[in-house]
């Protein structure tokens, strides 16, 4: 079952490490999720990052860069 952005933000707020499909979330949604991850010292892996432009990825990685892994494989 797919989780809503609100549900993912709640889960990320626990400090858990999470994996999110970048293809299924907007850049704004990913930035909100990463904010929650970073505040609780968690970690996020974004898969399917090839679905985002380099500019979008740079925006996503602007904060909490040490908490983000970008999966750029196809």
Descriptive overview:
The chain is α/β, with parallel strands linked by helices and 74 residues long. It has 3 helices and 3 strands. Strands 1-2-3 form a 3-stranded parallel sheet, with helices on one face. β2, α3 and β3 form a beta-alpha-beta unit. α2 packs parallel to α3 (54-60). It is globular and about 30 Å long.
Rg calc: 11 Å
**On the 0-100 scale, what is the average pLDDT?**
96
Strand order of the largest sheet: 1-2-3
Compute the number of structural domains: 1
Query: Helix content range of the residues, please?
Result: 25-40%
Judged by helices, strands and strand pairing, the structural class is: alpha/beta
Number of strand elements: 3
Report the portion of residues in β strands: 15-25%
Unreliable sequence segments: none
* Dominant shape: globular
Largest sheet: 3 strands, parallel
Query: Could you state the order of secondary-structure elements as H and E?
Result: HEHEHE
Number of helices: 3
Intertermini distance: 23 Å
Sum this structure up briefly:
The chain is an alpha/beta fold and 74 residues long.
Give the SSE layout.
Blueprint: H1 5-12, E1 17-21, H2 27-39, E2 43-47, H3 54-60, E3 68-70
Parallel strand pairs: 1-2, 2-3
Helix pairs in contact: 1-2, 2-3
Offer a few descriptive terms:
74 residues, alpha/beta, globular, single chain, 3-stranded parallel sheet
């Amino acid at each position: 079952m797919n989780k809503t952005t609100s549900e993912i933000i709640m889960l990320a707020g626990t400090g858990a490490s999470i994996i999110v499909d970048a293809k299924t979330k907007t850049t704004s949604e990913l930035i909100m999720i990463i904010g929650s991850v970073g505040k609780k010292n968690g970690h996020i892996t974004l898969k399917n990052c090839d679905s985002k432009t380099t500019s979008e990825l740079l925006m996503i990685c602007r904060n909490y860069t040490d908490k983000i892994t970008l999966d750029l494989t196809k």
